[in-house]
Design goal:
Length: 93
C-alpha cells in the first residue's frame, strides 16, 4: 500500500518583491513546484516546505527580515513553525 503524503503550500503575490522569495523557496525545496496564476504564485510540496532567510538574502544580495514575507503572503496550508531564520510548513507536529 502506498502512503499518501498531503501537500503543503504557500501562495505569494506575483510581483518584483516576491520573485527572489519564490526562487529561494524553490532552491531549498527540490520537490516543490510553482504554479503561476495572474497575480499569484502558489508553491506546493509533499509533506514539508521551508523558507530560509539566508537563501533569500543570497537571492537579493541584502539583509532580509523573514517577517517581510507577510507583506506579499496570500495564503498558506500546513502547520507553521517560524523563527528569525526559517519558516516551515508541514503536516507533522
Amino acid at each position: 500500500m502506498t502512503e499518501i503524503v498531503s501537500k503543503v503550500f504557500i501562495a505569494l503575490q506575483d510581483n518584483e518583491e516576491s520573485r527572489p522569495i519564490v526562487d529561494a523557496i524553490l532552491a531549498d525545496n527540490p520537490e516543490a513546484s510553482a504554479v503561476h496564476s495572474p497575480g499569484l504564485v502558489k508553491i506546493s510540496a509533499p509533506g514539508r516546505l521551508v523558507v530560509r532567510r539566508e537563501t533569500i538574502e543570497e537571492q537579493t544580495g541584502q539583509r532580509f527580515d523573514l517577517q517581510q514575507i507577510h507583506v506579499n503572503l496570500v495564503t498558506i496550508s500546513g502547520h507553521i513553525n517560524e523563527d528569525d531564520d526559517e519558516l516551515s510548513l508541514s503536516w507533522l507536529r
